[in-house]
Design brief:
The protein has helices at residues 2-20, 48-56, 70-79, 83-86, 117-123, 187-205, 228-234, 241-266, 311-314, 341-349, 421-426, 452-472; strands spanning 23-29, 58-64, 127-133, 155-159, 174-175, 178-179, 211-216, 273-279, 315-321, 330-332, 336-337, 379-382, 392-396, 399-405, 429-436. It is an alpha/beta fold and 497 residues long. The strands form 2 sheets. Strands 1, 2, 3, 4, 5, 6, 7, 8, 9, 10 and 11 form an 11-stranded mixed beta sheet that branches. The protein has a 4-stranded antiparallel beta sheet with strand order 12-13-14-15, covered by helices on one side. Helix 6 packs parallel to helix 8 (241-266) and helix 7 (228-234) crosses helix 8. The longest helix has 26 residues, at 241-266. It starts with a helix and ends in a 25-residue tail after the last helix.
């Protein structure tokens, strides 16, 4: 009898502990621009569910991704560190037999040594799941490189990069190591449905266990495909059929967000789930490459686009909701970053972060009540394959600093290996531009000449960060061997529900 009573008390204590620790739902879009949502000023695109999320939580006007392109942005979100530290400098092409080994890109992956948010939360008792785009390795679903499960996800339903052949009826999803095969429907609904099913099972089988769910939509990245009813609804305002497809794509992902929010309410966990919505980088440039004819994303008032170190490259929508804890209907100009999720979520979850782990994000719980973020260092980006000439950027309070590397003479690199690392480490920051982006969101007025003291101060900070990060970044070995996955382990594994 005593054992039964003690067991009952233990279960009750576990349930109460779960109630005091929030669940987490991170929703990340792909190539969604700062100006693509109704709540951020788009004149035509309808996003009612995201509008509701903004009304019920905080809308950040200075939210940033960890990079101006997909793979390093995702690595930064998962690690809370500049992706340069992890050796992920640009988007990761899929490794395939006969693929080029230029710059050792086929070796690039999120290494097992990296400490990730899902791993830390899982060690604190959380269940963890990923649904959607992975894009953190070249050799997807093989034993050659770590997979989502190695990064801390108990359950994963993912693609290496884009949904193929498009968002409609994709056939390249893998669930926990087993290829799923052809699917019917649109990617965002399939991704949302998978996560909803996983949360439902969690609530049924382990109702006291908190969860971390990462929903990584493919939308609105090319190749864009959207439901015909939504496309038809935009023909009256879009300039052409391709733009109508893009507008419909954003509204379709909004529908999927609505499905996720409704599921949280139906399962009784909405009030204790922190929801964070954002994008991995800024919008794609129309017709930049073959197949990008539907890239009608908007940077809003920002300068540049995806792959730029000006604001539009990585300043993105950012919505945060936690009923009763995060200030509702609030618009915050406080700079926040996807790098901040790890220190913030682990603090909320009571997860232990190694004391020697160098983080580049900050705990943003102060913003929950409308307060500031206290950072020990500025936000920064060093992107060696940027379209614009100034490949170093930093945001420090109201200020944005840009700099060239070696006067623009440093070659562009999509990856850093032992051959290119010495040149990158020796590069000098030059040709600074300074903007007060709180007053000049479009970076139209360079005040470097009129603010010499501030320029010296911020230039010294950027120089220190550049030296520290390049000295400690992971560098890949130089390789001339063609990329090839090591096995076909996916076919050896039994399919899981």
């Amino acid at each position: 009898m005593l054992r039964i009573v003690l067991t009952a008390f233990a279960l009750l204590a576990a349930a109460r502990a779960a109630e005091t620790r929030p669940n987490f739902l991170v929703i990340l879009c792909d190539d969604l621009g700062y100006g693509d949502l109704a709540s951020y000023g788009h004149p035509h695109i309808r996003t009612p569910h995201l509008d509701r999320l903004a009304r019920e939580g905080t809308r950040f006007t200075s939210a940033y991704s960890a990079a101006p392109v997909c793979s390093p942005s995702r690595v930064g979100l998962l690690t809370g560190r500049s992706p340069n530290r992890a050796g992920v400098f640009d988007w990761i092409p899929a490794a395939a037999p006969g693929a080029t080994a230029a710059e050792s890109r086929h070796l690039t992956h999120l290494r097992r040594e990296e400490i990730t948010l899902p791993r830390l939360l899982r060690s604190a008792g959380y269940a963890t799941a990923l649904s959607g785009k992975w894009h953190c390795n070249a050799a997807f679903n093989t034993s050659a490189q770590p997979q989502p499960g190695d990064a801390g996800f108990d359950h994963w339903f993912a693609t290496q990069n884009n949904a193929a052949p498009s968002h409609e009826n994709p056939r390249n999803f893998v669930r926990n190591g087993s290829p799923v095969g052809p699917l019917e429907g649109f990617s965002c609904q399939l991704v949302a449905r998978e996560m909803i099913g996983w949360i439902e099972r969690q609530r049924t089988e382990k109702p006291a266990q908190p969860f971390f769910s990462f929903v990584a939509f493919h939308e609105p990245h090319e190749p864009v495909a959207s439901p015909s009813d939504l496309v038809a609804s935009y023909r009256g305002v879009a300039r052409n059929e391709d733009e109508a497809q893009y507008f419909a794509n954003v509204t379709n992902l909004d529908r999927a967000v609505g499905d996720l929010l409704a599921a949280l309410e139906r399962l009784g966990v909405a009030d204790n789930t922190v929801v964070f919505f954002s994008s991995d980088n800024g919008p794609e440039t129309l017709n930049r490459y073959r197949g990008s004819q539907r890239s009608y994303g908007s940077p809003g008032p920002l300068r540049g686009m995806k792959l730029w170190t000006t604001e539009a490259g990585f300043r993105v929508p950012g919505l945060l909701r936690w009923p009763g804890r995060v200030k509702a209907g609030h618009v915050s100009a406080e700079p926040v970053s996807s790098l901040d999720l790890l220190p913030t979520f682990t603090a909320l979850a009571g997860a232990k972060v190694p004391s020697d782990l160098k983080l580049d994000g900050a705990d943003i719980r102060g913003t929950f009540a409308g307060g500031p973020v206290r950072r020990t260092q500025p936000l920064f980006w060093f992107y060696y394959n940027a379209i614009n000439d100034q490949r170093a950027a930093m945001r420090d309070g109201p200020w944005k600093l840009l700099a060239r590397l070696d006067g623009g003479a440093l070659p562009r690199f999509a990856n850093i290996n032992t051959a290119s690392a010495p040149q990158v480490r020796a590069a000098k920051l030059t040709d600074f531009s300074l903007f007060r982006v709180t007053d000049d969101i479009g970076e139209a007025r360079d005040v470097a000449a009129t603010e010499p003291a501030k320029l010296r101060e911020l230039g010294a900070k950027m120089e220190k960060l550049y030296q520290e990060v390049t000295a400690t970044m992971h560098v890949w070995p130089e390789s001339t061997v063609a990329a090839a996955p090591s096995d076909n382990s996916a076919k050896k594994k039994k399919k899981q529900p």
